[in-house]
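In this supplementary section we document a worked example of the pipeline. Step one takes a protein sequence of length 278 as its only input; no multiple sequence alignment statistics are reported here. Step two produces a three-dimensional model, which step three serialises into structure tokens for compact storage. The input and output of this example are shown verbatim.
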Amino acid sequence: MRTLPRPAIDPAIFFDTCTSGITDPAVKQHFAQARQTILDFAQVYLQKAPASTLHEFLPCSHGESQQIIVGALTKGDLNGLYSNQMVKGPGRSVYDDLMTSVPLNKCPYCGLSQVATLDHVLSKSRYPVFSTLPDNLVPTCGECNHSKGGGVATVENTGLHPYFEPADLSTTSWLHATAQDTMPVVVSFFLDIPDVLPPPIRQKITNHFRDLELARRYSVEAASELASIQEVFRLLPGPAARHAYLQNLATAESRLNMNSWKAATYRALEDADWFWSA
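The serialised model returned by step three reads:
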């Protein structure tokens, strides 16, 4: 997972931008009446997210688009604000800015695929009051978004939040891999999370790795990378050169992202003397 800077978007200004496109006078009035309450919820979100306690928000019922959520606003009203006024309406420029905010357009959750959608960290199906809160919207690939689903947030399923995780998440090594001496070679990924990270963060890393099926997805990606490395080996003069090549790859990738699948793969291959000395 790659951390991202928080969106530089004022929730109040963006709320007003989105609601400016509502044409139904009654619905527009309901949003105006609930405005402060919704912004108060946003402020609580900004307190809970860095404390890893977003799961403490009470979810609404599954389905039931007419369920009253805030004031006279229904779930359908709040989610319609996202669909009709952010995705398509006056808030579209912010939608586009969020979608293009990730380096190299790579999903910050997995680091594998291209960004294709915005993920509601707290799902709009269960927490519609945050449907257009920029801090709740993370650009992701379709597979990660689908894997996260839209259920109730709990301690056991809440994953990493790219906007709010502590800096030492990126400077502490917790993703690792081993290379198996098989034909073909298989790289397996696992977590070894040091105690320097607090328990809530360790739990979120575990949830993130499990729920996005990253062990499987990374192993598939590593198989393709292995084929490329083995072709490079054909051009190198011997084991020492091959080992140095892997060391350089591991060092460079670890500097970019210590917990990327590539960094873990190169470190595993560097340690596998049977791989580069044959």
